[in-house]
C-alpha cells in the first residue's frame, strides 16, 4: 500500500531536549516536505527536498533541520525544541513539486507538545 | 503576494443537504488547483486536481469547478453524509517560468454535517 509513515504520532518533550520525527515513503517519490499546522494558520511549509541531498527552506524553517540521505526518508530534527514549536506536523511526498499529474500524499501527522 | 482565501470559515449543514465551498486565489500564473479533505487530527487527502485548462472535475459526490479568469474555484458536495464532516483545504501550485513552485494552502473550511 502506498503510504507516508511518520513516527511518532504523539510526543511530549521538554524544552531543549533534541528530538527527531521520522518520515518514510514507499512510492519512490522525489519530492518530500514538512509542514506544521496551527489553529487559524493552516498548513505552513517548514522545509522541502527535491531529491537526495537537496533540501531547502520553506516559509517557517527557524528552529528546524532536515536531511535527505536516502530517497525514502526525510527526518525532521528539532535541535533545541521550544514551546512555540508545539504543533501538529505533517510530512508529505509527491513525484514532483506541484506537477499537474501528481498529487501530494500526507502522513498521519505527529502531534508535538513542548513543555 | 500569492494568497489563497477560502470561505466560509465554517459551515454546518444537515445530513443529505448539498453545500458549496469557495476558494479565491491571487496566484498567477498557476499550474494547478487542488482540493483536500482533512479529518480532525489526520493528514489531508486529495479530492481533486485541476489544471488551468480544466473547468470541472468530479470525485464521487464531490465536484470541483475552476474559473481561471476570475481566479475562483468551488467545491460542491452533493447529498452530504456524516462522514463528510472535515476541513476542506484549497491548495494552489504556482508556475514559475516552467518550474513548479511550492504549494500555497488556504486555511480551510470546517464543515460539520449534523444528523
Quickly describe the structure:
With about 120 residues, chain A is mostly beta strands.
Distinctive features:
heterodimer; A: 115 residues; mainly beta; 7-stranded mixed beta sheet; 4-stranded antiparallel beta sheet; globular; B: 115 residues; 5-stranded antiparallel beta sheet; 12 strands; 0% helix; 60% strand
The arrangement of helices and strands of chain A along the chain is: EEEEEEEEEEE
Biggest interface and which pair forms it? A-B, 26 and 24 residues
How do the helices and strands follow one another from N- to C-terminus of chain B?
EEEEEEEEEEEE
Give Rg of chain A in angstroms: 13 Å
- Please tally the helical runs of chain B, counting DSSP H or I stretches of 4 or more residues: 0
> Which oligomeric form is depicted?
heterodimer
Main beta sheet of chain A? 7 strands, mixed
Helical fraction of chain A? under 10%
The rounded distance between the terminal residues' Cα atoms of chain B is 41 Å
What does this structure look like?
The complex is a heterodimer of chains A (115) and B (115). In chain A, 38% of the residues are buried. The mean pLDDT of chain A is 92. In chain A, the strands form two sheets. In chain A, strands 2, 4, 5, 6, 9, 10 and 11 form a seven-stranded mixed beta sheet that branches. Chain A is 0% helix and 50% strand. Chain A has strands spanning 4-7, 10-13, 19-25, 31-38, 42-51, 54-57, 65-66, 76-78, 87-94, 105-106, 110-114. The radius of gyration of chain A is 13 Å and the shape is globular. Chain A is mostly beta strands and 115 residues long. Chain B is mainly β and 115 residues long. Chain B has strands at residues 4-7, 10-14, 19-25, 30-38, 45-51, 56-59, 62-67, 72-77, 86-96, 99-100, 104-105, 109-114. In chain B, strands 2, 4, 5, 9, 10, 11 and 12 form a seven-stranded mixed beta sheet that branches. Chain B has a five-stranded antiparallel beta sheet with strand order 1-3-8-7-6, with no helix packed on it. The model of chain B has no long low-confidence stretch (mean pLDDT 91).
Amino acid at each position: 500500500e502506498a503510504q507516508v509513515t511518520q513516527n511518532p504520532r504523539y510526543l511530549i518533550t521538554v524544552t531543549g531536549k533534541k528530538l527527531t520525527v521520522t518520515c518514510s515513503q514507499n512510492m519512490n517519490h522525489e519530492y518530500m516536505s514538512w509542514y506544521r499546522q496551527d489553529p487559524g494558520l493552516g498548513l505552513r511549509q517548514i522545509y522541502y527536498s527535491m531529491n537526495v541531498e537537496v533540501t531547502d527552506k520553506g516559509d517557517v524553517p527557524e528552529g528546524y533541520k532536515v536531511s535527505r540521505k536516502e530517497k525514502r526518508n526525510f527526518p525532521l530534527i528539532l535541535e533545541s525544541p521550544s514551546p512555540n514549536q508545539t504543533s501538529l506536523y505533517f510530512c508529505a511526498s509527491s513525484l514532483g513539486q506541484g506537477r499537474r499529474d501528481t498529487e501530494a500524499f500526507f502522513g498521519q501527522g505527529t502531534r508535538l507538545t513542548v513543555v | 503576494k500569492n494568497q489563497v482565501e477560502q470561505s466560509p470559515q465554517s459551515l454546518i449543514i444537515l445530513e443529505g443537504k448539498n453545500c458549496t465551498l469557495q476558494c479565491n486565489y491571487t496566484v498567477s500564473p498557476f499550474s494547478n488547483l487542488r482540493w483536500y479533505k482533512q479529518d480532525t487530527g489526520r493528514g489531508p487527502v486529495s479530492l481533486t486536481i485541476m489544471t488551468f485548462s480544466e473547468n470541472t472535475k468530479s470525485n464521487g459526490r464531490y465536484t470541483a469547478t475552476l474559473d481561471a479568469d476570475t481566479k475562483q474555484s468551488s467545491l460542491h458536495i452533493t447529498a452530504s453524509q456524516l462522514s463528510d464532516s472535515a476541513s476542506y483545504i484549497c491548495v494552489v501550485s504556482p508556475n514559475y517560468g516552467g518550474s513548479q513552485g511550492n504549494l500555497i494552502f488556504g486555511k480551510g473550511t470546517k464543515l460539520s454535517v449534523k444528523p
